[in-house]
Records
---
Amino acid sequence: MKNLINIKYWIFDLDNTLYSGQTKVFSEVDKKMSAFISRKMSVDLIKAKEIQKKYFYEYGTTLSGLMKQDDIDPHEFLEFVHDIDISWLPKDIKLKEELIKIKEKKYIFTNGSHAHVKNVTKQLGIDGLFDGAFDIVDANFVPKPHADPYKKIIKKFNIDPSKSILIEDIAHNLEQAKKIGMKTCWLENEEAFAKKDANKPYIDYKIKSLPSFLQEINILKAA
Ligand SMILES: [Mg+2]
């Protein structure tokens, strides 16, 4: 943990990382994806869900599959699926306090959209605390875990990977981060897909809670 006090670039995944997966925020997005596919392809929700998951596992995101197989307009998709009401999501005071204490650069790296970043961070009370966000449009619709967006985010924000860390709930998304020289941190969770690579050697740190982890680092830095 001690060598993390020298990190200059903190890179956070958004969904199920900046908020706990137990909040079910992402299920709202998930439901909208099924609804979108159901409408576009005139199939029932059960069939739509099947297509959605098949694409997710095959292409990294459902959107990638829809673009490759069905010629879907990505902007229409993103706008529809991220239009969710999460006013029930409580503010995360502890996360806010710890993020404020981190004076180095902080970025969000997501397979979602900028609108979703805004909606979620605002609701959590942590909007305005980041130096930037990199979304799926910035990635030219090539999602994590493909190598491409990792190279792009570094370029966009002039990040030195050897002084950075990526924090993620999907273990497999940490592989490329490690390859380009970042430290990697997996947020423990019980979702089968997210945890299937949790024991891979490219994972440097495993944590149970993001706010508590940041608090620990901030205490070390202050000492
Ligand atoms: Mg995530």
---
Amino acid sequence: MNQTIYDVVIVGAGPAGGQAARNLSKKGHKVLLVEKYKDFGENDFSSAGMTLEPLKEFDLPNTIIGSYWNDIEIQCSEKKYSWKSSTKKGVVLDFKKLRQFLADDSINNGAEVLMGHKYLSKKVSKDLVTLSILNTFSSTIIEVKTKLVIDATGPLRKVMYDDKEEQPQMVLGSGTEYVIKVEQEVYDRFKNKLVFFLGHKWAIKGYSWIFPMENRILKVGAGKTHIKSVDQEETNATTKKITEKIIEEYIQSKEFSIIDKHGGILRYSQGIKDLFYKNKVIAIGDSVSAINPRGGEGIRYAMQTADLASLYIQKYLKTEIEDFYGYRKKWRRKKLLKWRLSEFSARRMYSRYTDKQIENRIKFFHQKFDIDDMIDSLFNFKYNQLFIRVVQLMLLKLTYFIKGQKF
Ligand SMILES: Cc1cc2nc3c(=O)[nH]c(=O)nc-3n(C[C@H](O)[C@H](O)[C@H](O)COP(=O)(O)OP(=O)(O)OC[C@H]3O[C@@H](n4cnc5c(N)ncnc54)[C@H](O)[C@@H]3O)c2cc1C
């Protein structure tokens, strides 16, 4: 039994948990960060592509960057569309190094980090929460006491909901990714750009991708939404197959080696109906559906929920007044509409459109959008430009119709 009473125990050292530990330890709180894996290399599952803004927003060092990208390419079943830039537009992070950095920074601020420790259960009393945690090195169970516990376990929401407790209805998805080492000339074809695949030839109910990492290393993967049923094995097999098809038939590297294969799941509640706080447990990151439902970008939003929640946690630790309602309300006000629109667009693109419809849509974006418009649409979910262009197109169609001409 650890005799220390922590201000906060954070379960899960992903981007959300690591960022919360960093924030709260910096403010002088007694923080413990608990992660079930012994090493961040064991669950290095995220492609971690993003724009440049999060580097500044979270004061992240260059040492965690795998590569920069300037261009975006969308390969449909038939044609390829490119948006080019002469300057850097984003990064592909080294996901392992990102989480290691957040944990190390927290330790530098005075936090404790327990790797290889798995949260099992909680008991909540009037003033404290007692957590049972399995030390996976020694297979012993330790008990830890804390004033507040943060659920940062990602899509599983392990702390907020006990094993048998019912969770809100979730939409499910999954992804497979291979990290491969290729010949220099092959890498040179894919460096400096993010390649996305849409349509039924190179993706299944989702999209696939090739992201560059450091010299000669590529991340190749496929993600799939499961609108109706989930047969995890069948789905993983299919995202795995499509990833291998891209490596063999699209990249066509003659001598590649596989450095790592990994996968992960996505589970979010439509309309962000999650519990954000209950009975001394506050949830952040994918545990409150922070991930964007269209592109599956979740790192920036996981870290944003950590920043927002940290403000409410600090207030609670000062006043002991349980007022977390504003945390949920503010987050939903900021993201709900954008996430709903993202979901609407994802459902059409991934599940309903034919190859021809996808091709036409991307062709339209290619004619009307420059790279910054694309980044706004793909990463910042700013739909106003898109909305204006669609209205313009409808007006044009109407004019043709009134004149009795064919559009
Ligand atoms: C294949 C794939 C590709 C992706 N690509 C991108 C991308 O390009 N860009 C992007 O922004 N996002 C991407 N994402 C999404 C992004 O990785 C997640 O949204 C983000 O990692 C969520 O952060 P989190 O901290 O909330 O949860 P997680 O990163 O899932 O972290 C949760 C942590 O909790 C730990 N944990 C779970 N249960 C316990 C327990 N019982 N005890 C102790 N620890 C526990 C887990 O081991 C894990 O380390 C991708 C996701 C997948 C699956």
